[in-house]
Amino acid sequence: MRKIILALLLLVGAQSISAQMLMLHTTADLNLAEDIMSDTAFERYIWAIGYGSDHTEADNMAMAQLASIDLDIVAVHTSQSSSEQLNVESARTREVDEMEYVGTAMMYLENIHRIDLSNQLNDKDRKVYKYMVLRYVTAEEWARRYDSLSQKINSYLESAKLFDSVVDKLRCYTWAYALLTSYRGAPILVDGKAADQAVIAYIKDMLNGIDVNVIGIEKVEGDAKYPHKLYLDFTYQGEPLSDITFSYFDGGGIVEGEGVKDGRSMVMMSKLPESFTITIDCFMEDQARQQDASIYHSIQKLRMSGQLTGSIKQVETKPKGVKPLKEIDTNSQKVASAVNQKLTQSLAEYGKTSQATGSEEYVAIMNQIVASFSDESIDISHHFTPRGASDFENIVTEGKPVVARTPEWKFVKFDSLVICRELPLKLKFSSSRKSFIEDVVFRINARTKKIESVAYKLSSATERSIMATDWPEIDRLTLITFLEDYRSAYCLRDIAYIKKVFSDDAYIIVGKVLQRSTQQFNDKTELIDPSGKVVYTRYSKKQYVENLQRSFRSKEFINVRFEECTASKGYAAKKNIYAVQVRQLYSSNNYADEGILTLAIDMREEDNPLVRVRVWQQERDVNYTAEQMIERTVSTEGSFSQK
Questions:
Q1: Could you say which of 129, 144, 159 is where a domain stops?
Q2: DSSP class of 463
């Protein structure tokens, strides 16, 4: 790397700045710059100077230097005699091309000012640098940055207590720990202990509670490079684990970004060792990169310092009950699976009355579809209606899917349809090194035996929330089917469906979390509220759809997950009006957020559901509960609007 030695004018080095050099445009600028740089002990101002070949480089250098300032070091050296000068380069500076992040505490600092000193460079310095920038804040602002950081840390600690999901708890605790490494303010205590110590203990306990087991092995015919497909169960204290990310060694290199859904995952290997190691991404770094820049930079700092570790799990390759490799054919060898048992219990919640008869015919259809994933010569087109074929084509072209586990078929009678649940697929996006496990449901016409539609399944937890209502079974399945279609439309970037499903007069509130800028190119601060400022905007359907189209074009993938679901259903004059509120976790290759999504859906026309209300908020609001959406939706001349 090109080394750039910064002649920074910090501490005693500031004394080399002469008034002649600081011939600025106004006397006020001259006086201010001289005053700032005369404060070598940083008692009134915290400041730094950066040089560069352009304004951006000079400004970034100044910001990087400001981020690296440690006032404890300053205090030690300023207490010494003036003849004991500090080695500025070794103790106070960092090379700009080694500064891959801006200090986390800096990201909580407001009112960072700038004075451009470029036209004051002398001829000698101008041969090396063309631009010079002074960055500074008041000592009061500098002290307050830890107050904001403390608030952010405490918000994650509180959220960790409220979440039911161990993955959400783990994320909140690890992100709080990452921020704590940059915190130097008043002590933060958790259960009477120093926060960093308490949080580490919580994280270790949760990671120790995670078990990973191989429950099946399949030999993949025709794949010379990765002939071994291993089915994995992920559980936490015996319960299926979802939405965790891990990495492993496949025999040729490290594979990152592997996903888990409802306790299931699948990996491919070139060789089949006795055991192998997986590393759970407890810091959820990719999500942090998209969702909270300050946390991402803290994680980067931990990585550079060697403190970043994940949960290492040693997994025995050959589970009890699986035949030796030489006896394995193309059918997976399965053993008892805690995850499968839990999912079977979940399926049973649909009730005995909903089970379809004559399932052998449906099994034959689905087995042929499964076989088509490994043998493209198999013609399955005759099993689909035009819409069903279009849905299936969208799904099989997303993320190069492969079958992630031998399906445990379940057929549910739903009005004139039979719902086939479910085909587990693994989607892999190579450019962003992400993978997801998605379960696919097929809706088959009970008379024609044609597949009419295909969609991604909801999480088991979301399904259980809806099935736990006291509604008639057909109403519960109606809402589940709609939410599957709605979620799938965003994951597959199906703008045609979204145009169709939103009513022309829909009430749409969109929230967007603004990411903090690390670039400072003018004299006005560009830093945003460190909690991640959220801007709420009301859009017409036309505006909303146009914005989505632009957004979809920039996405390699979109993954939408619904959790913590509550649902309500209207009666009498509001019959067939449904409202649902979920915690939505949205991630893509270039943006991520999580918040509360509330929908009001008009299902009076069975084949034409319409979203009347769509509100996204960062936190739950008592004025926008599912029940409130039903109450606020009123009938006007055959349609519905909001009070």
A1: 144
A2: H
Identify whether the C-beta of residue 631 lies closer than 8 Å to the C-beta of residue 622: no
SS3 226: coil
The tens digit of pLDDT for each residue in 467-504 reads: 999 999 899 999 999 999 999 999 999 999 999 999 99
Report the DSSP beta bridge partners of residue 88.
none
In a domain, 165, yes or no: no
| Full residue range of the structural domain in which residue 488 is found | 483-643
535 located within any domain: yes
Would strands 577-588 and 239-240 be described as parallel, antiparallel, or unpaired? unpaired
Here the tokens at position 264 are 């299931």
Q: What does the alpha-carbon distance between residue 243 and residue 260 come to, in Å, rounded to a whole number?
A: 5
How many whole angstroms separate alpha carbon 485 and alpha carbon 496? 12
How many CB atoms within 10 Å of residue 266? Answer: 22
* Strand partners for 563: 583
User: What is each CA distance from 348 to 37, 402, 410, 471, in whole angstroms?
Assistant: 73, 27, 10, 17
Looking up tokens 């399932």 gives 359
Is 552 part of any domain?
Answer: yes
Query: Per-residue pLDDT averaged across 255-261, rounded?
Result: 91
Judgement on whether residues 493 and 602 belong to the same structural domain of the protein: yes
**CA gap 392, 456 in Å, rounded:** 10
The alpha carbon dihedral of 590, 591, 592, 597 has a sign of negative
Q: Which residues contact 312 (CB under 8 A, 6 or more apart)?
A: 277, 278, 279
The most confident of 179-183, 264-268, 271-275, 334-338, by mean pLDDT: 264-268
Give me the sheet containing 275-280, strands edge to edge: 254-259, 245-249, 275-280, 311-316
Does 316 sit behind a cis peptide bond, omega within 30 degrees of 0 on the bond before it?
no
pLDDT digits 0-9 by tens, 54-80:
888 888 888 878 877 766 544 433 333
Degrees, nearest 5: CA angle 282-241-338: 140
For residue 30, give the amino acid letter.
L
Instruction: Name 635's bridge partners.
Output: 640
- The strand pair at 502-513 and 610-617 is best described as parallel
CB 411 within 8 A of CB 362: yes
The structure tokens 């965790």 sit at: 244
Please tell me whether residue 291 adopts helix, strand or coil conformation: helix
pTM tops 0.90: no
Q: What single letter denotes the amino acid at residue 643?
A: K
Per the structure, the count of domains in the chain is: 3
In sequence order, which residues have a C-beta less than 8 Å from that of residue 28 and are 6 or more positions away? none
N-to-C CA span, the chain? 62
**Three-state DSSP class for residue 337:** coil
DSSP 422-461: EEEEEEEETTTTEEEEEEEEEEEETTT--EEEEEEPPPHH
Query: Which of 117, 144, 171 corresponds to the end of one domain?
Result: 144
Distance CA 439, CA 260 (A): 11
CB 88 within 8 A of CB 77: no
Which span out of 287-296, 404-413, 595-604 was modeled with the highest average pLDDT? 595-604
Measured CA to CA in angstroms, residue 285 lies from 239, 290, 299, 310 at distances of 24, 9, 7, 11
Q: Is residue 39 included in any domain, yes or no?
A: yes
If DSSP codes are grouped into helix, strand and coil, which group holds residue 261? Answer: strand
What distance lies between CA 509 and its chain's CA centroid?
A: 21
Contacts of 185 (CB under 8 A, 6+ apart): 146, 147, 149, 150
Amino acid letter, 31: N
pLDDT confidence of residue 349: 55
Q: Which of 343, 497, 479 is nearest to 424 (CA)?
A: 343
Residue in the block written with tokens 């008009």: 602
